[in-house]
């Protein structure tokens, strides 16, 4: 199936997609800040540069986009009809890198929370509430899917 827009338009569209300060990330940040949690943004000294790092609690929070990180079984994680091989390989590499970074963080003594975009879309209060419960617990990791 051919793309419905020209390569130039598609390139401009893809270039406009942000990797930081996304709507889901901002939602989590505002909620946690309102509750009194203080964090660092994308710290360069941590593997994978988590979206948020709460040093006091030694918690790293990743807010994953379902498409870009290949959320299994999610309706937002579809493979584009054009350049399918490229996208399948890219998303698979992202998943491998995510897993490796989470392991490195755990090896450094950090606890890891992964919040999926779809969870924030369907019920953001519940999803962020689970993250807050995780931060104040002693669990090693949590994944907040839809």
Give me some keywords for this one.
Endonuclease, Chain A, 44% helix, globular, single chain, five-stranded mixed β-sheet, 146 residues, 4 helices, 5 strands
Topology:
Blueprint: H1 7-15, H2 23-34, E1 40-41, E2 52-54, E3 59-64, H3 84-107, E4 111-116, H4 117-135, E5 141-144
Parallel strand pairs: 3-4, 4-5
Antiparallel strand pairs: 1-2, 2-3
Helix pairs in contact: 2-4
Short description:
Belongs to the vsr family. The chain has 146 residues and is of the alpha/beta class. Helix content is 44%, strand content 14%.
Explain how this protein is built.
With 146 residues, the protein is an alpha/beta fold. It has one domain (19-144): VSR Endonuclease (Endonuclease, Chain A, 3-Layer(aba) Sandwich), CATH 3.40.960.10. The chain is built from four helices and five strands, in the order ααβββαβαβ. The chain has helices at residues 7-15, 23-34, 84-107, 117-135, and strands at 40-41, 52-54, 59-64, 111-116, 141-144. β3, α3 and β4 form a beta-alpha-beta unit. α2 (23-34) runs parallel beside α4 (117-135). May nick specific sequences that contain T:G mispairs resulting from m5C-deamination. Keywords: DNA damage, DNA repair, Endonuclease, Hydrolase, Nuclease. Belongs to the vsr family. Its EC number is 3.1.-.-.
């Amino acid at each position: 199936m051919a793309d419905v827009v020209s390569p130039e338009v598609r390139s401009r569209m893809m270039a406009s997609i942000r990797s930081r300060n996304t709507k889901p990330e901002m939602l989590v940040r505002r909620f946690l800040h309102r509750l009194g949690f203080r964090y660092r943004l994308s710290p360069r000294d941590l593997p994978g540069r988590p979206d948020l790092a709460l040093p006091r609690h030694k918690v790293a929070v990743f807010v994953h986009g379902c498409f870009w990180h290949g959320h299994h079984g999610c309706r937002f994680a579809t493979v584009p009809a054009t350049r399918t091989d490229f996208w399948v390989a890219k998303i698979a590499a992202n998943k491998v890198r995510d897993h490796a970074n989470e392991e490195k963080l755990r090896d450094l003594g950090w606890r890891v929370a992964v919040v999926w975009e779809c969870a924030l879309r369907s019920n953001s209060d519940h999803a962020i509430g689970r993250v807050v419960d995780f931060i104040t617990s002693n669990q090693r990791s949590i994944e907040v899917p839809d």
